[in-house]
Amino acid sequence: MAGRTKQRLILTLLLCLGFPPLCLAQSNQLHEMSLERWGQLREVERHQMKVAEKYFGDRNWSVAADEYDKYLTLYETSDAASHALLKWAICQVELRRQNTAINDGFRSVVDYWPDSDDAIAASYYVGKTLKDIGQNQKAKTALNEVATDHAKHLAGVLAMVTLADIATVEKDDDLKEDILHKLTFDALRDKRTRRQCETASLQLANILFSKGAAADGIKALTTTYQDGRLASEVVNQARSPIRTLLSGEQTKPKANTLANEIIAFLREQEPKSTASDEDKTYARNLCFLVVDVLRSAKRSPEVDKEFANIAKRFGTDDQLLGRISEWHVANGEYAKARQAYGRFEDKIAGLQLVATSYRQEKDIAQAIQTYNKLMSEDAENQSKWKAESAAAYREFNKYNEAIALYQELVQEDAGNADRWLWETATTHRDAGQWKEAIGCFRQSERFPESYWEMASCHRRLKQHNEAIALYNQIAGGDKGRAPGAMLQIGYTEEEAKHSDKAIAAFKKVCRLFPKDQHASRAHAHLQNKYKLTVTLGGAKQD
Q1: Number of H helices, E strands in the chain
Q2: Which of 195, 200, 234, 515 is 20 to 30 A off residue 214, Cα-Cα?
Q3: For the chain, which residues make up each domain, given as ranges?
Q4: 441-465: b (≥16 Cβ within 10 Å) or e
Q5: What angle do CA 509, 514, 520 make, to 5 degrees?
Q6: Is the Cβ–Cβ distance between 368 and 392 less than 8 Å?
Q7: What's the predicted TM-score (pTM) here?
Q8: How far, in Å, CA of 310 to CA of 409, rounded?
Q9: Please, are residues 493 and 464 in contact by the beta-carbon 8 Å criterion?
């Protein structure tokens, strides 16, 4: 309590002195000073450091380096001198002077202030910088020392993460597993490092499961998850290893052993009593996780048996029937899936799933018949089911039938008329009925999308002037779409065999929108097709 009060007082004092709040917000980074340390600086020291930090925050590396150097010259005995040299070295890295940063910066911090936190940070930066310039062997030596000696320090965690990156690139599986183990079990976990450590625990569990080490993988996940979340994550991480092990003749026994051990773990998690709704739900979800494991292990008879066990213990409801149906669909057993859908308490939801299953089975006639039944039994949502019928027709390229339904919806569902008009237009477009599509898009209120679609249809009909007129209206009415519309004018002129006008249009895009991606495309097209070199914006770019 006293510590937090002191911190608040220091923060208030620094804010009153005009210290930038951004720097305070960054104080939990490896290369930032703590609030207490800022509070211990003399006012003149704080002023000079504030100047240097401002330029550092603005990424003006050259000026920032000069200001840190000035601090070192003026206040070489200051408690913050080591920090100034650390930041000076980081500036050198950003200025691509990595060897200077390592030898004159980071290593000097370690030599002159060996017991400081800045020395630990500098040791990490030595390794990271060596890695960034491709000296992986030297980097691994430096980083491993930091990771081993300072596992409970932010620098140690970052060193481990960097070592893991190197191991991934070098495909050094043993090193990667060792580092992930340290990140999972040994490293500091706080708000700055929690994400890295949790990610490491997931990766380590996956590796251990792939080796068939179920207990060790679960132990790794226990460092991050508890209770119900732990059980779910164990199954999430075990699925892929089980399938991979199952795919090889020699590893099949290991896959089955892993599956059995994961199932045994799930059974152990069950509450002793299921009297409360909460415990009952948890126990039931654990059984569903068992099903997931059995499915991954391709043990179909046991899946069916587990579903029967769930029904006996907890009763049958739509959730269970949905899971059973999903299992049948995955096996291509659509008829069995529909039997389960037919038992749904929510009859409408069941019928919708029946219709979907017919679409999956490519039986358009039965799908439409089911949607007709839905329209009859769920009159309040008739428009929804008619739209689904139209979508099913489109899915099977029966465009005229779909258009007829959309036209009915335009009349019957006036509140959504523009939506159905748009669907009518896009169906005509998909059917290659360009004139009809243009007529429908013209009635839509969706500018500029409707103009864009009409222009595309006109181009299909070789009506280039009409398309160009529409692109010009888009460019004049929507600044955000103007670069793209003007680029399309160039392509349209090209399609019309008007090379001079096309070149002029592409050049105009480069001149008016030099920083836009469409200008880059126009620039590349001029070079590749016409062998013309133009400058973006009318001036040379560095």
Answers
A1: 31, 0
A2: 195
A3: 447-542
A4: beebeeebebbbbbbbbbbeeebbe
A5: 75
A6: yes
A7: 0.76
A8: 44
A9: yes
Report phi then psi at 191, rounded to 5. -65, -20
Q: What sections of 269-398 are H helices per DSSP?
A: 277-296, 300-314, 318-330, 334-341, 347-360, 364-377, 382-395
Q: Do 82 and 113 contact (CB within 8 A), yes or no?
A: yes
- CA 153 from centroid of its chain's CA atoms: 28
pLDDT for position 38 = 85
**Residue 284 three-state SS:** helix
pLDDT average, residue stretch 292-309: 96
The letter for the amino acid at 372 is: N
User: CA separation (Å) from 484 to 131, 327, 447, 471, 522?
Assistant: 42, 47, 15, 9, 10
Res 25: pLDDT: 31
CA distance 34 to 46: 13
Q: Residue type at 438?
A: I
Q: Which of 121, 126, 104 is nearest to 31 (CA)?
A: 121
List the structure tokens of 123. 């040791």
d(CA 75, CA 71): 6
Element (H, E) at 287: helix 277-296
Q: What is the mean pLDDT of residues 35-56?
A: 90
Which residues lie below 8 Å from residue 442, measured CB to CB, with a gap of 6+?
Answer: 450, 454
With beta carbons less than 8 A apart as the criterion, state whether 131 and 158 touch. no
Q: Which structure tokens are listed for 231? A: 């059980």
Of 315, 214, 336, nearest in space to 263 by CA = 214
Tell me which residue has tokens 């409408």.
348
Q: Which two tokens stand for residue 204?
A: 């380590």
If you average pLDDT over every residue of the chain, what do you get? Answer: 91
Domain 447-542 falls under CATH 3.40.140.10 = no
Q: What is the DSSP string of 353-365?
A: HHHHHHHHTT-HH
- Residue 6 pLDDT greater than 80, yes or no: no
Q: Is the pLDDT of residue 2 over 50?
A: no
Confidence of residue 192 (pLDDT cuts 50, 70, 90): confident
Measured distance CA(214)–CA(264) in Å, rounded: 10
Question: Rounded to 10 degrees, what is the CA torsion of 527, 530, 535, 536?
Answer: -80
Q: Are 168 and 176 in contact (CB under 8 A)?
A: yes
